[in-house]
Amino acid sequence: MLVRASKRPTGQAFAWTQRTKRTAAAVPAFIMSEVETVSTLIGDIYDAALDPALWPGVFDGISAYVGVANTNLYSHDNVGKCAELYFTSAHDPEYRQLYFDSYFKINPLFPTVVFCEAEKSLSIADVVPREEFCKTKFSREWLAPQGYVDAVFSVVEKSRTGCALFTVIRDLTQGLADEETHRRFSLLIPHVRRSLLIGRVIDLHKVEAAALADALDTLAAAMFLVDARGSLVHINVSGHAMLSHGNVLKAANGRLRAIDPHAEQVLGDIFATAPEGDLLLGRKGIAVPLKATDGERYIANVLPLTSGTRRKAGISYAAVAVVFVRKAGLDLPSLPEAIAHEFRLTPAELRVLFSIVDFGGVPEVAGILGVSDNTVRTHLQHVFEKTETSRQADLVKLVAGYSSPFAS
């Protein structure tokens, strides 16, 4: 059963530290209340890895805890010129449709948001100056009519063509995001990212936690159920094949061990921490890099089994975690990153470049970005100089060239 936070806790800002049961009695009640709320919420987040239908309810809980109007996860594709909403807690259906029909194309956070570090808590002003952002067509026509005043977001996944954002939005009654907003949001980011990555690896609509091993035995990714010492409790077919090769992982005295020493230490720390609950895992092992003896690279994602409905699987198999291992994808820079790096474009110049490519003339771009025609012309002239072009048509060809999967 999904447990949601019924109201925003009344806690004060405080530094999170690892706590044990021996010291719990000495912790103030308001802190323990928040610990319990966050622990329950994180448990729900990991349950959603096994059942995507839980995400909207989980996002309701996140909105209540962080103190925001809504929470959502969506992606932008700079090459395909499209956006996709995966999960949301609350959005006006009409404005949601408007966003994915047209307004995503003029969201000023893109394409420069792809430069942001994954899992970092950011506000709009961290990407685009607030005064400039408020003058954009996106802000005037899509955000303002809904009463939205700020957003806090984090990049949870990057690809060659775009990125996915975990986002919370604040309205007029809540005001601009403050330190407390960022603190609460930051507590949840790594767990949301881990759950999403695992959900993608599993690629199943729903897996009953109590029958986890049976349901995933035919999974293409290698899967290992382990206890707190890393002892192997269950292995799927792909996992057995990986262990037989012995170039990425091995079973030493019945324990799952990584060939790479650093990865071995990280996995050991995760397994030892898992029995203490989801909250203490934090950013540990969200995507543990594994290097094979032949130089190939793999990624391990660890799902704890000590809370929520996943606890049934942990009890059934005497396990504290399930480890998924798959080959890592080719790490290529995104389209905006590649172009900006090659021609040393500033964020403002990059926004003008993509706006010119998508919408054409200077007046149109000025209206969309909320700046003067002269400002657009100045940035455009810099883009021409840096890319050694002289026409807007040349810029379209340049971006198209980088969009090709065969571009060097």
From the alpha-carbon coordinates, what is the Rg to the nearest angstrom? Answer: 23 Å
Overall tally of structural domains: 3
Unreliable spans: 1-28
Into which percent range does the helicity of residues fall? 40-55%
Task: Describe the protein in words.
The chain is α+β, with helices and mostly antiparallel strands and 408 residues long. It folds into three domains: 29-202, 2-Layer Sandwich (Beta-Lactamase), CATH 3.30.450; 209-327, Beta-Lactamase; 335-403, Arc Repressor Mutant, subunit A (Orthogonal Bundle), CATH 1.10.10.10. Helices cover 42% and strands 18% of the residues. It has helices at residues 29-50, 55-66, 93-101, 130-134, 137-143, 179-202, 212-216, 237-245, 261-273, 311-317, 335-343, 347-359, 362-369, 373-387, 392-403; strands at residues 70-77, 82-88, 122-123, 148-158, 162-171, 222-226, 232-235, 249-252, 255-258, 288-291, 297-304, 321-327. The strands form three sheets. A five-stranded antiparallel β-sheet has the order 2-1-5-4-3. Helix 12 (347-359) crosses helix 14. The radius of gyration is 23 Å and the shape is globular.
